[in-house]
TrEMBL record:
Name recorded for this polypeptide: Ribulokinase
GO molecular function per UniProt: ribulokinase activity
CDD domains reported for this sequence: ASKHA_NBD_FGGY_L-RBK (cd07781)
Pathway(s) this gene product operates in, as recorded in its UniProt entry: Carbohydrate degradation; L-arabinose degradation via L-ribulose; D-xylulose 5-phosphate from L-arabinose (bacterial route): step 2/3
Matching PANTHER family: FGGY CARBOHYDRATE KINASE DOMAIN-CONTAINING PROTEIN (PTHR43435:SF4), RIBULOKINASE (PTHR43435)
Keywords, sorted A to Z: Arabinose catabolism, ATP-binding, Carbohydrate metabolism, Kinase, Nucleotide-binding, Transferase
Organism name: Microbispora bryophytorum subsp. camponoti
C-alpha cells in the first residue's frame, strides 16, 4: 500500500481520569499512534479547586479545561508518534463518559468559568450520585402516572442521568439553573468546541435524557415534579443528529489546538461504551459488548423491541442507525478492586508482591487463582458503587458474607471478582428472560489484561468470551465514526467490518468450574434478592450522611 495515498482519522476518547487519542488508517483500522493526557483535576469529589468549597457525599465533578487540554496535548502527540502527515487526516471523532453533563451559556461557555466557587456550576461526572433522591421522585411520579417512556428504561431512570441531575441543580441552586441556557452532555459540548456548532446526538439524548419516540417527557410531567422544572427541556437539544453523521467542520481554533487541518470532518458526538461496539465489529443483533474498566457498560443491538427490567435503556438508532440499541451496566467493577487494594490489603502483601516483581493486583490475582471455586467460603455483592442494572439504585452498597478469622485478602479479592461476574450473569439472564437473546459476549476495556478475571467470567457465564482486538476500543470506535462522517464508508456497519477488530471465543468455560459456580451464583442471587429493597443499606447510608453533614 502506498503510504502517500493513505487516509487517516483521529479518535479521541474522554475517560474518567484521562483522555486518549489514536491515529487510525481508514482502509484497515490499523492504529498507528496514540497518546494519553491525564486530567489535571482528575475527579473533583471533596472540594472545588481554587475556592476549596466542600462538596457533599456522592458528588463527582470534572473540569472542562481538562477536556480542552486533551485536544492540545494528546492529539498532536499521537500524530507525532504515528508519523502521519496532518494533511492526510480526513476526520476526527470523539466519545465521552455519560451522563457527564454541564450547565452552559447560550454560546457554550461553562458556568464554572464564571462561578468557580459554586458546585452546581461545574460539570457533573457520570458517577455523581448525589441526585438519587431526585431520581426516586421522578421514578415514583412516572410510575404513578403510567408514563409510557418508563418501561423503555427498565422501570427506573438513574440518578446519573440528565433529568435527575437537572432537578438537583434547580432545587439546590436555582440561580445556576436559571443562568444555564444549556444543559448539555460533555459528548456534545466538546463537538461544539471543535466545530463552533451546537449539536445533540441521538445516543445521549435517548439513553441519558429520556428522549423516546421523538419527544422528551412532557412539560406537564416536569411541572408535577416542580413547577419551575416545566421548561427544562428547552435547555436540551430538540433536533438530534444521527450517529456516524457529520456534526460540522474543524474550526481554525480547534485546528490550532490539535495540529489537524482546518475544515476536516467532525463526527457527531457519542458515548464511550456505545462507540466501542463498532471498534469490536459487534454491531449486529445479539452481540453484547461489555466494556469493562472502572465500571462496566453492556451494550447490544437488536432488531426487536422489548422491555427488559432494570436495563439502562433501549433506544432506536442508539448504537447504529436502523436497530434498537440496548444498554445495561454495573456502576463499579475495576473501582471495587482498586478500592480493596488501596484500603484493605496489609503492607506485607505489597512487600511480597515487590519481591515477586509483581504489582499488588497481579500478586493478589495469582494467589486467588490458586484456589478452587468456593474454597474461600465467601459470597459478595458488587454494589460498592451502587447497582445500575438490574436494580437501578445507586444508594445500595457492597456486602461480603462468610468472613472468618481465617479469611485472607486474596479470598476477599477473589470473591469481589466473582461478584462482578455474577452481576454480569444477572444482566444477561434478565435480557434473555425478556426475550432478547445474547448470542455472543464480547469483552473490551482495561480489565481484558487480567486473564484470570476473564476466565472467571467465562466460567460464571457458562459461555465463550470473544475479545476486542484493540487496547483503545472507544478511541478506535470514535475513529471509525469519523471515517463514516468523512464519507470514506457508507455506514457504521461497513466501516466496522473493515476497521473493527474482534477475536472470537478466546476464553472457553470449564464445565467443572462452571458447575461449581452455579452453586455460588445461587447464593449470590439469594443475597441479591434479600438486599434488593435497600432497607438496611439505605438506613446505613442515611446514618453515614447525617454523621458527615
Amino acid at each position: 500500500m502506498n503510504v502517500d495515498s493513505d487516509r487517516y482519522v483521529v479518535g479521541v476518547d474522554y475517560g474518567t481520569l484521562s483522555g486518549r487519542a489514536v491515529v487510525v488508517r481508514v482502509s484497515d483500522g490499523a492504529e498507528l499512534g496514540s497518546a494519553v493526557h491525564e486530567y489535571a483535576h482528575r475527579v473533583i469529589e471533596e472540594a472545588l479547586p481554587g475556592s476549596g468549597v466542600r462538596l457533599g457525599p456522592d458528588w463527582a465533578l470534572q473540569s472542562p479545561a481538562d477536556w480542552i487540554d486533551v485536544l492540545r496535548h494528546a492529539v498532536p502527540k499521537a500524530l507525532a508518534v504515528a508519523q502521519v502527515p496532518a494533511e492526510q487526516v480526513i476526520g476526527i471523532g470523539t466519545d465521552f463518559t455519560a451522563c457527564t453533563i454541564l450547565p452552559a451559556t447560550a454560546d457554550g461557555h461553562p458556568l464554572c468559568e464564571e462561578f468557580p466557587e459554586r458546585p452546581h456550576a461545574w460539570p457533573k461526572l457520570w458517577k455523581h450520585h448525589a441526585a438519587q433522591s431526585h431520581a426516586d421522585r421522578i421514578n415514583a411520579l412516572a410510575a404513578e402516572r403510567g408514563e409510557a417512556w418508563l418501561p423503555r428504561y427498565g422501570g427506573k431512570i438513574s440518578s446519573e442521568w440528565a433529568f435527575a441531575k437537572g432537578l438537583q441543580l434547580l432545587e439546590e441552586d436555582p440561580e445556576m439553573y436559571d443562568r444555564a441556557d444549556r444543559w448539555i452532555e460533555a459528548a456534545d459540548w466538546i463537538i461544539w468546541q471543535l466545530t463552533g456548532v451546537e449539536t445533540r446526538n441521538v445516543c445521549t439524548a435517548g439513553y441519558k435524557a429520556v428522549h423516546q419516540d421523538g419527544a422528551y417527557p412532557s412539560e406537564d410531567f416536569l411541572a408535577a415534579l416542580n413547577p419551575a422544572f416545566s421548561g427544562f427541556t428547552r435547555k436540551l437539544g430538540q433536533e438530534l443528529a444521527p450517529l456516524g453523521g457529520l456534526a460540522g467542520r474543524l474550526t481554525a481554533l480547534a485546528a490550532e489546538w490539535t495540529g489537524l487541518p482546518e475544515g476536516i470532518a467532525v463526527a457527531v458526538g457519542n458515548v464511550d461504551a456505545h462507540v466501542t461496539a463498532a471498534a469490536a465489529d459487534a454491531v449486529r443483533p445479539g452481540q453484547m459488548v461489555a466494556i469493562m474498566g472502572t465500571s462496566t457498560c453492556h451494550v447490544m443491538c437488536s432488531d426487536q423491541l422489548a422491555e427488559v427490567p432494570g436495563m439502562c435503556g433501549v433506544v432506536r438508532d442508539g448504537i447504529v442507525p436502523g436497530l434498537w440499541g440496548y444498554e445495561a451496566g454495573q456502576s463499579a467493577v475495576g473501582d471495587i478492586f482498586g478500592w480493596f487494594v488501596d484500603n484493605c490489603v496489609p503492607a506485607s502483601y505489597a512487600d511480597r508482591a515487590a519481591e515477586a516483581g509483581l504489582g499488588l493486583h497481579e500478586y493478589l490475582t495469582s494467589l486467588a487463582a490458586e484456589q478452587k471455586v468456593g474454597q474461600h467460603g465467601l459470597v459478595a455483592l458488587d454494589w460498592h458503587g451502587g447497582n445500575r442494572s438490574v436494580l437501578v439504585d445507586h444508594t445500595l452498597s457492597g456486602v461480603v458474607v462468610g468472613q472468618t478469622l481465617a479469611t485472607r485478602p486474596e479470598d476477599v479479592y477473589r470473591a469481589l471478582i466473582e461478584a462482578t461476574a455474577f452481576g454480569a450473569r444477572t444482566i444477561v439472564e434478565t435480557f434473555e428472560a425478556a426475550g432478547v437473546p445474547v448470542e455472543e459476549f464480547v469483552v473490551a476495556g482495561g480489565l481484558l489484561k487480567n486473564g484470570f478475571l476473564m476466565q472467571t467470567y467465562a466460567d460464571v457465564l457458562r459461555r465463550p468470551l470473544s475479545v476486542i482486538g484493540s487496547d483503545q476500543g472507544p478511541a478506535l470506535g470514535s475513529a471509525i465514526h469519523a471515517a463514516v462522517a468523512a464519507g470514506a464508508y457508507p455506514d457504521i456497519a461497513a466501516a466496522a467490518a473493515d476497521m473493527g477488530k474482534r477475536q472470537a471465543a478466546v476464553y472457553a468455560p470449564d464445565a467443572g468450574r462452571a458447575d461449581a459456580y452455579d452453586r455460588l451464583y445461587a447464593e449470590y442471587r439469594r443475597l441479591h434478592d434479600h438486599f434488593a429493597d435497600g432497607g438496611m443499606l439505605h438506613r446505613l447510608r442515611a446514618i453515614r450522611n447525617e454523621a458527615s453533614a
